[in-house]
Write a structure and sequence with these properties.
Elements: E1 2-6, E2 11-17, E3 23-30, H1 33-47, E4 52-56, H2 61-69, E5 74-78, H3 80-86, H4 94-107, H5 118-150, H6 162-170, H7 176-207, H8 211-216, H9 224-234, H10 245-249, E6 254-259, E7 262-268, H11 274-290, H12 292-302, H13 309-330
Parallel strand pairs: 1-4, 4-5
Antiparallel strand pairs: 1-2, 2-3, 6-7
Protein backbone atom coordinates (compact mmCIF):
# COMPACT_ATOMS: atom_id res chain seq x y z
CA UNK A 1 0.00 0.00 0.00
CA UNK A 2 1.23 3.49 -0.86
CA UNK A 3 0.15 6.22 1.56
CA UNK A 4 0.45 9.96 1.02
CA UNK A 5 -0.11 12.24 4.02
CA UNK A 6 -0.51 15.99 3.89
CA UNK A 7 0.38 16.78 7.50
CA UNK A 8 -0.69 19.88 9.42
CA UNK A 9 -0.87 20.81 13.07
CA UNK A 10 -4.59 20.22 13.61
CA UNK A 11 -5.80 18.63 10.37
CA UNK A 12 -4.23 16.14 7.99
CA UNK A 13 -5.31 14.30 4.86
CA UNK A 14 -4.50 10.68 3.99
CA UNK A 15 -4.63 9.07 0.54
CA UNK A 16 -3.99 5.33 0.06
CA UNK A 17 -3.24 3.50 -3.20
CA UNK A 18 -2.98 -0.24 -3.68
CA UNK A 19 -0.22 -2.11 -5.53
CA UNK A 20 -1.88 -1.21 -8.86
CA UNK A 21 -2.09 2.50 -8.10
CA UNK A 22 -5.85 2.42 -7.47
CA UNK A 23 -7.33 4.52 -4.68
CA UNK A 24 -8.63 2.37 -1.84
CA UNK A 25 -8.91 4.86 1.00
CA UNK A 26 -8.97 8.63 1.58
CA UNK A 27 -9.80 10.54 4.70
CA UNK A 28 -9.27 13.80 6.58
CA UNK A 29 -8.19 13.53 10.22
CA UNK A 30 -8.97 16.38 12.55
CA UNK A 31 -6.51 16.48 15.39
CA UNK A 32 -2.82 16.10 16.12
CA UNK A 33 -0.31 13.76 14.48
CA UNK A 34 -1.06 11.21 17.19
CA UNK A 35 -4.50 10.76 15.61
CA UNK A 36 -2.86 10.38 12.19
CA UNK A 37 -0.75 7.54 13.56
CA UNK A 38 -3.85 5.89 15.05
CA UNK A 39 -5.65 6.17 11.68
CA UNK A 40 -2.72 4.54 9.92
CA UNK A 41 -2.87 1.67 12.38
CA UNK A 42 -6.53 1.18 11.42
CA UNK A 43 -5.71 1.33 7.70
CA UNK A 44 -2.97 -1.25 8.12
CA UNK A 45 -5.28 -3.52 10.11
CA UNK A 46 -8.03 -3.17 7.51
CA UNK A 47 -5.95 -3.94 4.43
CA UNK A 48 -3.34 -6.16 6.07
CA UNK A 49 -0.64 -5.18 3.62
CA UNK A 50 2.86 -3.77 3.81
CA UNK A 51 2.76 0.02 3.75
CA UNK A 52 5.02 2.74 2.42
CA UNK A 53 4.29 6.27 3.64
CA UNK A 54 5.30 9.64 2.22
CA UNK A 55 4.85 13.08 3.74
CA UNK A 56 6.34 16.51 3.17
CA UNK A 57 9.16 17.75 5.38
CA UNK A 58 8.16 20.39 7.94
CA UNK A 59 8.65 21.25 11.60
CA UNK A 60 8.68 18.03 13.62
CA UNK A 61 9.32 15.85 10.55
CA UNK A 62 12.05 13.90 12.35
CA UNK A 63 9.80 12.86 15.23
CA UNK A 64 6.94 11.95 12.89
CA UNK A 65 9.33 9.92 10.72
CA UNK A 66 10.48 7.91 13.74
CA UNK A 67 6.91 7.23 14.84
CA UNK A 68 5.88 6.09 11.35
CA UNK A 69 8.96 3.89 10.99
CA UNK A 70 7.77 1.90 13.99
CA UNK A 71 4.47 0.89 12.33
CA UNK A 72 5.13 0.79 8.57
CA UNK A 73 7.79 -0.82 6.38
CA UNK A 74 9.04 2.29 4.56
CA UNK A 75 8.93 6.04 5.24
CA UNK A 76 9.97 8.70 2.72
CA UNK A 77 10.15 12.38 3.68
CA UNK A 78 9.68 14.56 0.60
CA UNK A 79 11.69 17.70 -0.12
CA UNK A 80 9.17 20.60 -0.08
CA UNK A 81 11.10 22.82 -2.47
CA UNK A 82 11.49 20.14 -5.12
CA UNK A 83 7.87 19.08 -4.72
CA UNK A 84 6.75 22.58 -5.70
CA UNK A 85 8.81 22.31 -8.89
CA UNK A 86 7.27 18.91 -9.72
CA UNK A 87 3.65 19.83 -8.98
CA UNK A 88 2.77 23.33 -10.04
CA UNK A 89 -1.00 23.60 -10.17
CA UNK A 90 -3.67 26.24 -9.65
CA UNK A 91 -5.86 23.71 -7.84
CA UNK A 92 -4.27 22.97 -4.50
CA UNK A 93 -5.76 21.63 -1.28
CA UNK A 94 -4.84 19.09 1.39
CA UNK A 95 -6.66 16.16 -0.27
CA UNK A 96 -5.06 16.85 -3.65
CA UNK A 97 -1.62 17.17 -2.06
CA UNK A 98 -2.03 13.85 -0.23
CA UNK A 99 -3.01 12.16 -3.50
CA UNK A 100 0.00 13.63 -5.28
CA UNK A 101 2.33 12.38 -2.55
CA UNK A 102 0.84 8.88 -2.77
CA UNK A 103 1.17 8.91 -6.56
CA UNK A 104 4.80 9.99 -6.44
CA UNK A 105 5.51 7.28 -3.90
CA UNK A 106 3.82 4.67 -6.11
CA UNK A 107 5.92 5.83 -9.09
CA UNK A 108 9.07 5.94 -6.93
CA UNK A 109 9.62 9.57 -7.92
CA UNK A 110 9.62 11.26 -4.50
CA UNK A 111 12.46 13.79 -4.07
CA UNK A 112 13.59 12.67 -0.60
CA UNK A 113 15.33 14.49 2.22
CA UNK A 114 17.85 12.89 4.55
CA UNK A 115 16.53 12.20 8.04
CA UNK A 116 19.31 11.85 10.65
CA UNK A 117 19.05 9.93 13.90
CA UNK A 118 17.40 11.61 16.91
CA UNK A 119 20.72 12.31 18.66
CA UNK A 120 22.09 14.06 15.56
CA UNK A 121 18.89 16.10 15.23
CA UNK A 122 19.25 17.17 18.88
CA UNK A 123 22.88 18.11 18.20
CA UNK A 124 21.86 20.26 15.24
CA UNK A 125 19.13 21.94 17.29
CA UNK A 126 21.59 22.87 20.04
CA UNK A 127 24.01 24.28 17.45
CA UNK A 128 21.19 26.42 16.06
CA UNK A 129 20.18 27.44 19.59
CA UNK A 130 23.70 28.68 20.29
CA UNK A 131 23.61 30.68 17.08
CA UNK A 132 20.32 32.21 18.21
CA UNK A 133 21.90 33.21 21.53
CA UNK A 134 24.79 34.85 19.67
CA UNK A 135 22.33 36.82 17.52
CA UNK A 136 20.48 37.97 20.64
CA UNK A 137 23.72 39.10 22.24
CA UNK A 138 24.70 41.08 19.15
CA UNK A 139 21.25 42.70 19.08
CA UNK A 140 21.46 43.74 22.74
CA UNK A 141 24.94 45.20 22.31
CA UNK A 142 23.81 47.19 19.27
CA UNK A 143 20.81 48.54 21.20
CA UNK A 144 23.03 49.62 24.09
CA UNK A 145 25.45 51.36 21.75
CA UNK A 146 22.53 53.11 20.07
CA UNK A 147 21.17 54.17 23.47
CA UNK A 148 24.49 55.78 24.38
CA UNK A 149 24.72 57.56 21.02
CA UNK A 150 21.23 59.01 21.36
CA UNK A 151 22.37 60.60 24.65
CA UNK A 152 25.64 61.92 23.16
CA UNK A 153 27.67 59.50 25.28
CA UNK A 154 30.56 57.24 24.40
CA UNK A 155 31.41 54.15 26.40
CA UNK A 156 34.94 53.23 27.51
CA UNK A 157 37.04 50.55 25.91
CA UNK A 158 36.02 47.12 27.07
CA UNK A 159 32.39 48.14 27.46
CA UNK A 160 31.25 44.49 27.61
CA UNK A 161 33.69 43.47 30.35
CA UNK A 162 32.65 43.38 34.00
CA UNK A 163 34.15 46.82 34.58
CA UNK A 164 32.52 48.17 31.42
CA UNK A 165 29.08 46.91 32.43
CA UNK A 166 29.54 48.48 35.87
CA UNK A 167 30.28 51.82 34.16
CA UNK A 168 27.20 51.35 31.99
CA UNK A 169 24.95 50.78 35.02
CA UNK A 170 26.37 53.83 36.82
CA UNK A 171 26.23 56.13 33.79
CA UNK A 172 24.05 59.18 34.38
CA UNK A 173 21.07 59.26 32.03
CA UNK A 174 18.61 62.15 31.61
CA UNK A 175 15.41 60.37 32.69
CA UNK A 176 14.05 57.25 34.36
CA UNK A 177 12.64 55.71 31.17
CA UNK A 178 16.02 55.70 29.42
CA UNK A 179 17.65 54.32 32.56
CA UNK A 180 15.03 51.56 32.71
CA UNK A 181 15.76 50.54 29.14
CA UNK A 182 19.50 50.55 29.92
CA UNK A 183 18.97 48.34 32.98
CA UNK A 184 16.78 45.83 31.12
CA UNK A 185 19.24 45.54 28.22
CA UNK A 186 22.18 45.15 30.59
CA UNK A 187 20.36 42.46 32.57
CA UNK A 188 19.62 40.63 29.31
CA UNK A 189 23.26 40.88 28.23
CA UNK A 190 24.51 39.49 31.53
CA UNK A 191 21.99 36.63 31.38
CA UNK A 192 23.00 35.64 27.84
CA UNK A 193 26.63 35.08 28.82
CA UNK A 194 26.06 32.13 31.21
CA UNK A 195 23.45 30.65 28.86
CA UNK A 196 25.88 30.71 25.94
CA UNK A 197 28.68 29.20 28.01
CA UNK A 198 26.36 26.43 29.21
CA UNK A 199 25.38 25.56 25.66
CA UNK A 200 28.99 25.67 24.45
CA UNK A 201 30.05 23.36 27.28
CA UNK A 202 27.40 20.83 26.25
CA UNK A 203 28.45 21.13 22.60
CA UNK A 204 32.10 20.58 23.54
CA UNK A 205 31.18 17.41 25.42
CA UNK A 206 29.14 16.19 22.46
CA UNK A 207 31.98 16.91 20.02
CA UNK A 208 34.29 14.60 22.00
CA UNK A 209 32.12 11.67 20.92
CA UNK A 210 32.72 12.45 17.24
CA UNK A 211 36.33 11.95 16.04
CA UNK A 212 35.35 13.67 12.78
CA UNK A 213 35.25 17.00 14.64
CA UNK A 214 38.87 16.59 15.71
CA UNK A 215 39.77 15.56 12.16
CA UNK A 216 38.33 18.74 10.60
CA UNK A 217 40.07 20.91 13.19
CA UNK A 218 43.41 19.97 11.62
CA UNK A 219 42.51 22.44 8.85
CA UNK A 220 44.13 25.83 9.65
CA UNK A 221 41.44 28.29 10.72
CA UNK A 222 38.72 25.72 11.39
CA UNK A 223 37.68 25.81 15.05
CA UNK A 224 35.41 23.58 17.07
CA UNK A 225 32.23 25.54 16.29
CA UNK A 226 32.74 25.26 12.52
CA UNK A 227 33.86 21.63 12.66
CA UNK A 228 30.95 20.46 14.79
CA UNK A 229 28.39 22.24 12.59
CA UNK A 230 29.78 20.70 9.41
CA UNK A 231 29.95 17.21 10.93
CA UNK A 232 26.43 17.46 12.39
CA UNK A 233 24.84 18.55 9.12
CA UNK A 234 26.79 16.18 6.88
CA UNK A 235 26.29 13.32 9.36
CA UNK A 236 26.90 10.51 6.89
CA UNK A 237 29.47 11.64 4.27
CA UNK A 238 28.77 8.56 2.11
CA UNK A 239 25.35 9.91 1.20
CA UNK A 240 27.12 12.43 -1.06
CA UNK A 241 28.06 10.28 -4.03
CA UNK A 242 29.88 13.21 -5.63
CA UNK A 243 32.02 15.72 -3.75
CA UNK A 244 30.64 18.56 -5.90
CA UNK A 245 27.16 18.10 -4.38
CA UNK A 246 28.29 19.42 -1.01
CA UNK A 247 28.25 22.97 -2.41
CA UNK A 248 24.61 22.65 -3.48
CA UNK A 249 23.66 21.14 -0.13
CA UNK A 250 25.00 24.14 1.78
CA UNK A 251 23.89 26.71 -0.82
CA UNK A 252 27.31 28.12 -1.77
CA UNK A 253 26.94 27.53 -5.51
CA UNK A 254 25.61 30.26 -7.83
CA UNK A 255 22.14 30.28 -9.35
CA UNK A 256 22.33 29.19 -12.98
CA UNK A 257 20.24 30.01 -16.02
CA UNK A 258 21.56 28.26 -19.12
CA UNK A 259 19.70 28.41 -22.40
CA UNK A 260 20.49 28.71 -26.11
CA UNK A 261 24.21 28.45 -25.50
CA UNK A 262 24.24 31.23 -22.91
CA UNK A 263 25.15 30.47 -19.32
CA UNK A 264 24.17 33.12 -16.76
CA UNK A 265 25.34 32.77 -13.17
CA UNK A 266 23.84 34.80 -10.34
CA UNK A 267 24.12 35.02 -6.56
CA UNK A 268 24.59 31.88 -4.49
CA UNK A 269 21.43 29.87 -3.87
CA UNK A 270 21.64 30.08 -0.04
CA UNK A 271 19.84 26.77 0.25
CA UNK A 272 20.47 24.55 3.22
CA UNK A 273 21.57 25.51 6.75
CA UNK A 274 22.60 29.15 6.94
CA UNK A 275 24.52 28.57 10.18
CA UNK A 276 27.04 26.34 8.41
CA UNK A 277 27.49 28.86 5.57
CA UNK A 278 28.17 31.63 8.08
CA UNK A 279 30.65 29.60 10.13
CA UNK A 280 32.52 28.24 7.11
CA UNK A 281 32.78 31.74 5.58
CA UNK A 282 34.24 33.04 8.85
CA UNK A 283 36.64 30.10 8.98
CA UNK A 284 37.67 30.78 5.38
CA UNK A 285 38.92 34.27 6.31
CA UNK A 286 41.10 32.79 9.05
CA UNK A 287 42.30 29.95 6.81
CA UNK A 288 43.37 32.44 4.14
CA UNK A 289 45.69 34.07 6.69
CA UNK A 290 47.03 30.85 8.19
CA UNK A 291 47.32 28.44 5.27
CA UNK A 292 49.51 29.15 2.21
CA UNK A 293 47.54 26.53 0.28
CA UNK A 294 44.18 28.15 0.94
CA UNK A 295 45.60 31.65 0.43
CA UNK A 296 46.93 30.59 -2.98
CA UNK A 297 43.45 29.32 -3.94
CA UNK A 298 41.85 32.58 -2.75
CA UNK A 299 44.30 34.75 -4.71
CA UNK A 300 43.89 32.61 -7.82
CA UNK A 301 40.13 33.20 -7.80
CA UNK A 302 40.49 36.91 -6.98
CA UNK A 303 42.82 37.56 -9.95
CA UNK A 304 44.33 40.52 -8.12
CA UNK A 305 41.04 42.45 -8.39
CA UNK A 306 39.59 43.88 -5.17
CA UNK A 307 36.07 43.80 -6.57
CA UNK A 308 36.33 39.99 -6.73
CA UNK A 309 37.17 39.60 -3.03
CA UNK A 310 33.66 38.49 -2.01
CA UNK A 311 33.45 36.08 -4.93
CA UNK A 312 36.82 34.64 -3.95
CA UNK A 313 35.74 34.27 -0.33
CA UNK A 314 32.62 32.30 -1.27
CA UNK A 315 34.67 30.14 -3.62
CA UNK A 316 37.16 29.50 -0.81
CA UNK A 317 34.34 28.52 1.56
CA UNK A 318 33.05 26.14 -1.13
CA UNK A 319 36.55 24.73 -1.54
CA UNK A 320 36.83 24.19 2.22
CA UNK A 321 33.53 22.28 2.29
CA UNK A 322 34.69 19.99 -0.50
CA UNK A 323 37.97 19.38 1.30
CA UNK A 324 36.09 18.64 4.53
CA UNK A 325 33.83 16.13 2.82
CA UNK A 326 36.84 14.41 1.30
CA UNK A 327 38.55 14.24 4.68
CA UNK A 328 35.43 12.78 6.30
CA UNK A 329 35.23 10.10 3.61
CA UNK A 330 38.90 9.09 3.73
CA UNK A 331 39.75 9.88 7.36
CA UNK A 332 42.91 11.74 6.27
CA UNK A 333 44.12 14.79 8.17
CA UNK A 334 44.88 18.12 6.53
CA UNK A 335 48.03 18.21 4.41
CA UNK A 336 49.55 21.61 3.74
CA UNK A 337 50.58 21.48 0.08
CA UNK A 338 51.63 24.78 -1.51
Amino acid sequence: MYVGIDVHLKRSSIHVLDENGKQVHADTIRGSRIKVLAELEKVKEKFGEKMAVCFESSCGAGWFHDQLAAIVERVVVAHPGQLRMIFRAKRKNDRVDAKKLATLLFLDQVPPVYVPKPEVRAWRELIEHRQGLIRKRVRVKNELRALLRTQGMEGPRGLWTKAGRAWLRAAGLPNELTALKRDILTDELEALGPQTRRVEKALAETAKRYPAVTLLRTIPGVGIRTAEAVVAYIDNPRRFTKTERIGSYFGVVPCQNESAGKNRLGHITKQGPGTVRKLVAEAAWVSIRRSPRIRAFFERVMHGKKERKKIALVATAHHLLRVMLGMLKTGETWREVA
